[in-house]
Design a protein that fits this description.
By secondary structure, the protein is an alpha/beta fold. It folds into four domains: 119 residues, 3-Layer(aba) Sandwich (Rossmann fold), CATH 3.40.50.11060; 63 residues, no CATH class; 171 residues, Rossmann fold; 67 residues, Alpha-Beta Plaits (2-Layer Sandwich), CATH 3.30.70. Helix content is 43%, strand content 18%. It is built from 16 helices and 13 strands. A six-stranded mixed β-sheet has the order 6-7-5-8-9-10, sandwiched between helices. Helix 4 packs across helix 6 and helix 5 packs antiparallel against helix 6. The protein is elongated.
Length: 451
């Protein structure tokens, strides 16, 4: 489908001002530059294989309630749309139902705002049953007001789970009552998903393995990093929202500690609240994580703005992003794309931060060992170092220690016994005690473990 991408350029304001509610302030005043938003909006359109004929930044000093753009600009754009024969116009800005209807009538083409476009991408990318339910819930929540306020029953309503398909492709005559019934049904199904996930989490707690969740701005390289660490083959493309459905893999660290690494959906500036709410079941994996890796594309010119967007979503989920006790570790990815001078500046800046990030290249593998060591150290802050003497007959226990703990030192004694110094995770203390009692190993020196 031939498309035109428009990015309204409002006056930018500070993050602190953006966080303050103001009834007189126009919504969606982005912290990102207009040029970066234009590139991102075009990338979103490319993600669903639209044929973008033209993309433009449109100055918007005074947004209009009826059409967003001024009358003269609407007419000017109408002529341009006809010239390039576009069938779809994407406006990278929230549109009210009235604005969307008026623009479609004025231009005689389909119009999508930013939220609608993101929802369309999610609708095409979701693969699992859970993902499809979450996307459908977000679609219906977004459309509920538009079905009534935008269209009359004399016209064919757009309805259903997509925006770009023609009439008749979805549930055409869907009304508010039917939408509410479907939303209620989806929420019941998602409640089952939440309960299932909770059962899985309880199962992991019994093992227990710490959960390390990867989050970050879309296209920051999260899936590439996940694949690099785990050896998995999760789809990793230079494309927004390449990953929607969460993936989890077990990883064994140098100390012997096993973790569950989770790859999650990418965040984006001004992520629709309907999506945050719909994907809460998936994002609970982030909420419950023992450690969160915030992956940043450090080579991107607006990496700081992207970081602010990610942190805003994390705060919406109730996650501490500020205090020294926060369980977030920043990972500055794509250092291979930095010039030598910029790279040196990044390394210097990282050293002065209160919580120093780890610099890596998920593509080349540079810095991955340091990242794994940093994860190990962070999770092992309460590890205990113990000296044990293992009887000669207890090869089984020795093997358990190699599997579940970190062997720091080993000495084979003349008696056939083995003296080992081990680092053991605090959460494994009871399992270690059980192994020692079974093997008849003395509890000498294990006061810290018993405490």
């Amino acid at each position: 489908m031939r498309a035109l991408v428009l990015v309204p350029d409002l006056k930018r304001i500070s993050r602190s001002a953006a966080d303050q509610p103001d009834a007189n302030k126009q919504p969606f005043v982005s912290l990102h530059s207009a040029q970066d938003r234009l590139s991102e909006a075009s990338g979103l359109a490319d993600a669903i294989e639209l044929d973008v004929q033209e993309s433009q930044i449109v100055s918007l000093p005074n947004p209009r309630p009826a059409t967003l753009f001024g009358t003269g600009k609407v007419e000017e754009l109408k002529d341009f749309i006809q010239t390039i024969e576009a069938a779809l116009v994407i406006v990278d800005h929230p549109l009210s139902p009235i604005q969307q209807r008026n623009l479609e009538r004025a231009w005689n083409v389909k119009v999508l705002d930013r939220t609608g476009l993101i929802l369309e991408i999610f609708g095409r990318r979701a693969r699992t049953r859970e993902g499809r339910l979450q996307v459908e819930l977000a679609h219906l929540s977004y459309q509920k007001s538009r079905l009534v306020r935008t269209w009359t029953h004399l016209e064919r309503q757009r309805g259903g789970y997509g925006f770009l398909g023609g009439p008749g492709e979805a549930q055409i005559e869907l009304d508010r009552r039917m939408i509410n019934e479907r939303i209620a049904a989806i929420r019941k199904e998602l409640e089952v998903v939440v309960k299932t996930r909770e059962l899985h989490r309880k199962g992991r707690r019994r093992v227990p393995y710490p959960i390390v969740a990867i989050v970050g701005y879309t296209n920051a390289g999260k899936s590439t990093l996940f694949n690099r660490i785990t050896g998995a083959t999760v789809l990793a493309k230079q494309q927004v929202f390449a990953t929607l459905d969460p993936t989890m893999r077990e990883v064994r660290l140098e100390s012997g500690r096993r973790i569950i690494l989770s790859d999650t959906v990418g965040f984006i500036s001004d992520l629709p609240t309907t999506l945050v709410a719909a994907f809460r079941a998936t994002l609970e994996e982030v909420i419950e994580a023992d450690l969160i890796l915030h992956v940043r594309d450090i080579a991107h010119e607006e990496t700081q703005e992207q970081a602010c967007d990610v942190e805003a979503v994390l705060r919406d989920l109730g996650i501490d992003t500020i205090s020294a006790s926060s369980n977030i570790m920043e990972v500055w990815n794509k250092i291979d794309m930095l010039s030598p001078v910029t790279r040196e500046e990044a390394c210097s800046a990282a050293q002065w931060l209160e919580r120093p990030p780890v610099l890596v290249s998920a593509t080349t593998g540079e810095g991955i060992d340091k990242l794994l060591a940093a994860i190990d150290a962070r999770l092992g802050a309460h590890d205990e170092v113990l000296d044990l003497i293992i009887p000669a007959r207890e090869g089984k226990m020795l093997n358990w220690l190699y599997e579940e703990a970190g062997i720091l030192d080993r000495e084979n004694l003349e008696t056939g016994e083995v003296r080992v110094r081990v680092r053991i995770a605090a959460e494994k203390r009871q399992r270690l005690l059980a192994q020692m009692r079974r093997a008849g190993v003395a509890l000498t020196g294990l006061d810290a473990v018993e405490a």
